Amino acid sequence: KRYWEEAMPVVKARAARPTKPATASKPGGGPPVVKPAAGVRCGYVKPWSPKSRSAAKKDAAAKPSLQTAKATKPAEATKPAEAAKATKPAKPAKAAKEAKAAKRTKAAAGAKPRKSVKRKRAELEEEEEEESNKRQRLFWRGWKEVFPIGTEWEQMDAVDVVGWDFEHLLEDMTDGELSNRDHPVYFFCCTEPQMLPWGKTESGEQAYTVVTIPCIVAVVGDIAPPAKLGITSVMMDQEQIVDMSELKIDWAPWLLDSGYKRGKPKFYRTVCVARKRWLDAMSEEDRKRYDFSLPYIFLPKQLAEDIDSSVHKIEMIAGKTVDIQFDVSMDRVDDIVEELMEDYEHLKGHEKEVHGIVKKLALEQKDRVRQKKAERAAKLAEYTPEQQKALDNLQFIKYYPQNVTPDTTQCRVPFINRYYGHAHAVKPSEVAKERALFDVALEHHS
Q1: CA separation for the pair 1, 6 (Å, rounded)
Q2: From CA 327, how far away is CA 365, in angstroms rounded?
Q3: Once rounded to an integer, what is the mean pLDDT over residues 120-125?
Q4: How many Å apart are CA 291 and CA 149, to the nearest integer?
Q5: What is the pLDDT of residues 373-417, one digit of tens each?
Q6: Max alpha carbon distance in the chain (Å)?
Q7: What is the DSSP string of 125-187?
Q8: Closest CA to 354 of 367, 342, 369, 368
Q9: Confidence of residue 285 (pLDDT cuts 50, 70, 90)
Q10: What is the pLDDT of residues 29-79, one digit of tens each?
């Protein structure tokens, strides 16, 4: 009551004022703030209450909007195009989207599906990989445990792209001629790149591809082959005979289901324990040693071969070339000089010069022959007579894969390398090939 008694005089004084007082709005919105007149104390002011949403909608509906005003104009004022648009019923947004999608589907129904080049290549690679995995699952995979000596590191993965069949080797090791030997059998692997008909082109024709063929060589005898490698190439000045351990290669037991006999392994194979980190840190020259390395062996029977004592040299005498050929073990120097004087007319008067050149060439060749004989004698001195006999009695069996596709029959040769010479047997034989072809035909017919 006291509050109203104090407020009412103020309200009455404001109502009695002839002019409207200045107002100011709050910064954040809301009711206007009334500035009181000078000398009048502020009293009670009715608080501002915002209208509800329903009341605001009613007020907006009561006031005519701009669109309603345009719609109330006479029909003559509107243009014909606008009138047509106004009379045309509007499609819902969902129906319009469905109509566009149906139109695209109808246009794409008659067109052929296109595949990008990358997609085609990816599909072909997947098919080839699937076929390779299928072939690899069919055959025995144990032959891959033999390290291929002399194969480039970049070509290691290409050795088994085909999925090679060495079932005949497994049969010989388990139930065949290699299974019951008194002494261990040693195996090493070498590779032979060949151009073979294998695979199909995109047009379906026969494709010819360079295929890396692995060959497993079995060393059968009473003595173990040496753990040495011969490294030689055109770029090297001379041949190097080194231990396998220098390249982290060695003979290791090859254990199958029946891998032991009398407590000792029956089979040995070549392995390489070099880690990839160690290989990556190598220089290019050291990596090339792997590419040019070959399994080394000394066979005394090879010493029985005659040492080459022939001479073939082209010399410049009296301003012209002269071809000099002779054998120091059969020909004399005087006889060679007489023949050269008869064959070349421009040599008349130069007999002493020709004689000196031929004599020098003959002495040099005799020294080489004498040096080679001394080297052979030194090698023989390293082995006892029993070891020499055992080395000469070693047998070498060269195993090729017996796949029907690709067919490696035309590529099978007995030559192994310059140290081992030729193999005593090459497998599979022609009989085994005919049996394999018969099995394939029978399986296809069934």
Answers
A1: 9
A2: 9
A3: 71
A4: 8
A5: 888 888 888 888 899 899 999 999 999 999 888 888 888 999 999
A6: 161
A7: HHHHHHHHHHHHHHS--GGGGS-BTT--GGGSGGGGSS----HHHHHHHHTSTTTT-SS-EEE
A8: 342
A9: confident
A10: 555 555 555 544 544 444 444 555 556 566 656 655 544 444 444 444 445
